[in-house]
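To fix ideas, we give here one paired sequence and structure record:
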Amino acid sequence: MNNAWGGYERLNAGAWAEWQAPFWEQPVELFDRMFTSGMRAHYVALVVSAPLLIAAPGSLVVTTSVSVPSADQEQFGAAYVTAKTADDRLAAAAAIQLRPHAVASVAIHPDWVRTEGVLQFADQVDLSASQSPEGVGRAVVALATDSDVLSLTGQVLTVTWLAERYGLDVKT
């Protein structure tokens, strides 16, 4: 499960305006943290775990990312959009190389997940479609135990879609 992420440090410290600023007004450090602590962490974890995954046909790599629709990109900084798109591409590239070993790789896109870090911004974001951390976990477990998971390899899957597929409650 590739879920480690960096780049939120300044946001969590109250830099909401900086996060929402145009990319040319955001500090380059924001981009660096997202790629070093986020994207790079996912890549390194995948590199280190690949031999173990290959030794266990039927295993699965799940990379947590986020959907960034073109119409809503003004809500996200360019660094965030770039890093999250790179996560999706990593999952797809890994799927191509791991599939011959019967190992699946997918990216999942949860909606807002009600973690402490997200809840501190409840006044700035719409949490009406949010999901609980436990609900997202149930979706990942259902995916990991799906005997046909290899048919999904290389795809970007929303947690909402997984909940529908497996009949799960991801809200609580």
